[in-house]
Each structure stands twice: as structure tokens, then as C-alpha cells.
Amino acid sequence: MKNYVQAGNVITATAPAGGVTSGGGVQFDALFGVAATDADEGDDFEMACAGVFDLPKAAVSVTYGAKIYWDDDAKVVTTDDGGTSQDNLNIGTALAAASGGTATARVRLRI
To answer: How far apart are CA 33 and CA 8, in angstroms?
Structure first.
């Protein structure tokens, strides 16, 4: 194919205000990924847009197969879509149950 660019599982992005931390979630409008490296604001970094990750979680219970959303203000995953305004981005599906007191949730990112 003449127009093929890449698989898109990992892409290069420019770190937003405040920079990014390796393993941290990063949202650009409707695009979500996990930073592969630390990067200062304005620097390029690699961001995984596919795969399974343990991500920091809000104090909510998660069931296996639940829709998972990213709360970009708190920088955590949640089962809450943010209400009628749908403020939280649907980023994937839970691959393990987690109690409200558990710090992380195992998430398969949406492709």
C-alpha cells in the first residue's frame, strides 16, 4: 500500500503542559495513550495507544469487562462516564475485577 504509515500501536506525540511521566495516562481530546517515557512539556515522547496496562484508579469498584473511562482532571481511570456531558473518555475495558480500595485497574485500551 502506498498510503500505509504505521500500525499505530505506539505513536510520537508532544508532551502537554506539565510534561508526562512514563506509565502515566495522556489524553489529547479523543486520543488516549500511556507514556512510554518521561518527557518535559514540548518534548516529543512515545505513547502506547494499544495494549493492556495497570493504571491508577479512582476509589470505585471495577468488575471484569466493565467499560473504563479516563478522568483527565484527576488522571485516573473510573467506571463513571462523567454524566450527561460525557466528560470522561471511554478508553477501554477492565480485564480484572478491583475493589474500591485497590489503587489500580487492569485495562485493555480501546483500539
So the answer is: 11
User: Backbone phi, then psi, for 48, in 5-degree steps?
Assistant: -80, 125
CA Rg, the chain, in Å?
Answer: 14
CA angle 31, 49, 46 (to 5 degrees): 100
Q: E-assigned strands of 1-111? A: 10-14, 25-28, 31-35, 44-48, 52-56, 67-71, 76-78, 89-94, 104-109
Structure confidence by residue, pLDDT tens digits, 33-82: 999 999 999 999 999 999 999 999 999 999 999 999 999 999 999 999 98
Show me where the domains of the chain are located: 10-48, 52-109
CA-to-CA distance for 38 and 45, rounded, in angstroms? 7
